[in-house]
């Protein structure tokens, strides 16, 4: 396999013969490279892996052979180069010269159901009930406060998050406006491409568009010479060397590359500047060590850190859905769950949850409470005022996003820094 330091990167071929001629070592491969390797290109020789079955095209890859202090020459990983297509079953096999070693390795090809794992969990698992068990461990590092009780538990599907900030490395371009931000996995396809800004047609040289792409696939157009990228949708594949995009690329590239993209998470840019990009309406699927791209700008970078409302990334396992507003003074102590309002009760109100030396925390905000030093909060019935600062953080989860599939109201459950609670729910469907 050629390694990614040239246009020949990512090509996988089988060695069918190997011999010496005049002091030179010659390896014979089963078919020519689509893009010929250049002087200085590097390569990897490894056992060849092929998956055969009822797919329209076979899947291919190679095995990574490793050793450690106790075991020599074991397969530590299988890298898939071509995923194939259309499989419902398959058999994986390893082919290669063992160099005198015993070849006892066996592989099992695990095929996801149609639509992928989780697309129809009822059918795939053959179940009618789902059990959920969660333990709240004291304050969960501050994400779930203990200075008030809770009175309901529920399950929400596909929520979106506010004020998610990504820290990026290896950046190119600039993210702009409120464009969509996509996190992507991608595979560099064979051959070179030619694109311009006046046509949505991509012309290829030594490409295999008809074997690699289909309508509605996402692709990244890449210009290695100028390190430019843009993401587009395939409208149609004409043949192996011509395809049509939904819109024209944003730059001209005479010797470009095309990368098949798999979008794993989306959000909408809300601001900030490199090496940071902030988003609202972000799916809780962003992870570190993968790349993001701007839908319009083609901005590009590798995610090295994630925060939500300035709280460190915690794998999306917990969130804080209180409104947080800075304040300068409080007339007197405010009772938990007291109703507070701003200007007019009918226009903007919330429940007082708690406060610390910097912020007052509110729940169930209705209307919009502004972080305005000239417009204090008023406590209903007592008339106590809370003089606000100018900083406000909305709840982590976007209001109205997601879908509640279970909700149960409880008698108030008091919390403590030395207490944990376990919540168990059985969902039937």
Quick recap:
The protein has 429 residues and is mostly beta strands.
Could you please describe the fold and organization of this structure?
- This protein has helices at 121-125, 209-212, and strands at residues 15-21, 24-29, 48-53, 59-66, 74-82, 90-95, 129-137, 150-157, 164-172, 180-188, 192-195, 201-205, 218-223, 228-239, 242-245, 253-271, 276-280, 291-294, 300-308, 311-312, 323-330, 339-342, 349-355, 359-366, 377-379, 385-393, 403-413, 420-428.
- Strand 1 (15-21) and strand 2 (24-29) form a beta hairpin.
- The longest helix has 5 residues, at 121-125.
- The protein has two helices and 28 strands.
- The radius of gyration is 28 Å and the shape is elongated.
- Helix content is 2%, strand content 48%.
- Among the domains are: 164-312, no CATH class; 323-393.
- The strands form six sheets. Strands 9, 10, 11, 12, 13, 14, 15, 16, 17, 18, 19 and 20 form a twelve-stranded antiparallel β-sheet that branches.
- The protein has 429 residues and is mostly beta strands.
Tell me the layout of helices and strands.
Blueprint: E1 15-21, E2 24-29, E3 48-53, E4 59-66, E5 74-82, E6 90-95, H1 121-125, E7 129-137, E8 150-157, E9 164-172, E10 180-188, E11 192-195, E12 201-205, H2 209-212, E13 218-223, E14 228-239, E15 242-245, E16 253-271, E17 276-280, E18 291-294, E19 300-308, E20 311-312, E21 323-330, E22 339-342, E23 349-355, E24 359-366, E25 377-379, E26 385-393, E27 403-413, E28 420-428
Antiparallel strand pairs: 1-2, 3-4, 3-6, 4-5, 7-28, 8-27, 9-17, 9-19, 10-16, 10-18, 11-12, 11-16, 12-15, 13-14, 13-16, 14-15, 16-17, 18-19, 19-20, 21-24, 21-26, 22-23, 22-25, 23-24, 25-26
